[in-house]
UniProtKB/TrEMBL annotation:
GO terms for cellular component: membrane. PANTHER family: FATTY ACID AMIDE HYDROLASE, TRANSAMIDASE. Residues 1-16 have a biased composition (Low complexity). GO terms for molecular function: N-(long-chain-acyl)ethanolamine deacylase activity. GO terms for biological process: N-acylethanolamine metabolic process. Belongs to the amidase family. InterPro entries: Amidase (IPR000120), Amidase_CS (IPR020556), Amidase_dom (IPR023631), AS_sf (IPR036928). Residues 182-570 form the Amidase domain. This is Amidase domain-containing protein. Residues 1-21 are annotated as: Disordered.
Amino acid sequence: MGGSSSTGRGKTKGSSPLAMTPVEEVDISAVRYKPPTLQAPHLTGFSLRAFVWLMESPLLGPLITSFLKSQNNMPQTLQQTVIPERPMYYPEYPPQDTEPGVVLVGEDRHPVERVHEALQYLPSYDPSVRWATEEKLPFLYWKIRDFAHAYSSGITTPSVVAEHVIAGVEEWNNKKPPMPMLIYFNADDLRRQAEASTKRFEQGNPMSILDGIFVAIKDDIDCFPYPTKGATTFFDQIHTVEKDAVCVARLRKCGVIFIGKANMHELGLGVTGNNPNYGTARNPHSVDRYTGGSSSGPAALVSSGLCSVAIGTDGGGSVRIPSALCGIVGFKTTYGRTDMTGVLCDSGTVEVASPLTSSVEDAMLVYFAIAGSRPMDKLTLRPSPLCVPNLLSPDNSNILGSVKIGKYTEWFHDVSDREISSTCEDALKLLCNTFGCQIEEIILPELEEMRTAHVVSIGSESFCDLNPHYKAGRRTEFTLDTRTSLALFGSFSSTDYVASQCIRRRIMHYHMEAFKKVDFIATPTTGMTAPKIPPSALKSGESDYVVSAYLMRFIIAGNLLGLPAITVPVSGWS
């Protein structure tokens, strides 16, 4: 298997099965990287419809899924190999020391207080950067503090910006081809929210720095009174939204203005953003290409400048992949750091709600609004205290000079086009030359085993959530590529799932060993640039696991291990 090492697995005596070497005994220095060799058909149109029929056939379906899994060595890894480690059903970390140069922030405090405290440790806002001339600048690509300054200075109001947003949404929807970034949008409701925010500014009493900031919510997160469909055609009929999801409620307390429910890959089961139900959200930089997914609408909205912030979910790169392909910031938070109550997939072990923003600063401010574990996670996960970097402290003036960046060079360059990794490498060199960071070579064994463990984990957890509806006769109401995924996910056994959690423990060990040497691990976010949209995929969808594997190449550890991860743009579009 690609990314595996012969040093981590060997035969036992006689006719006994394969057995992995206990993880503490693996000689990491002897590991050799092998490029992955995922095999799966690329299907659209009639071929996809026929393949789904075969996959769902009681007689032929098990044969096809068994063949596909065998082609990718899944039975060998999960059923024919002894894995000596015990399962890790949730991410478990060793105790973490408080980082230098940070200030602890009580996560039980009101969101407004947390955001205000985070704001105190940012450099002072310089209006001259944005407002260098008297010319009225368009609102496109304003950041949070740009809006806040414009509102408090009387340059504009939330109501005025709301009209720009409404016009922008209509313009994108009427383009040829159309850009369906939102599934649910109510212009009158947007005006009402903006009017309330405008009055608060007129009275000199904004709720927070986030008051009047326009925010889109992915369609798998409850935002009352809008329906939550998960970008299906029917889920709102069986899922009643009675109140905001916790992350949405926290933002509402800060005075944000909700644009509506953003488009997505149906139920989050894909990373291109394709959606035949409501139309596929196209990449604002190149409309013949995908945004990436599953948070396709959130990424397109922020990238197009219609809002500074969107909230998505990330169970397999679904915030970071579209952020990378659309040239914005996507911050995947630590597992359990944000309360998932009110999110469709709120019981899995890999998914989190996270912000997509126009800048790293905006991601930090939004993070401090939505952060806060649910009580159950505080008991089971024991998260480290919430903290904010003190960027004003003299002790932090040269803190990047001590940072060590981990880089697994062979993996780093395993991309579809070497220009991708070379551009990222240039960014790392610039960081090191400017701030004195150091790059340390690391090795991360069993990367393909990690991919297998992740797909079984997220697949089994998703199928568990959706199976009652699948069995209740809703099967044909899902899109074809969702049905393909569910047919595969339904073939995973309890043995597969438990073995995957044993692998999770091994992968966690390898990463914790790497973090003894480095402060963070740097990779390209995706192994390819935004893929083109096949015209035949718009009507009936698309299944292309090879493209998905390229898009997910570097993002899986953040989900399987629950680690925080961020994608930032390193170059403009040509």
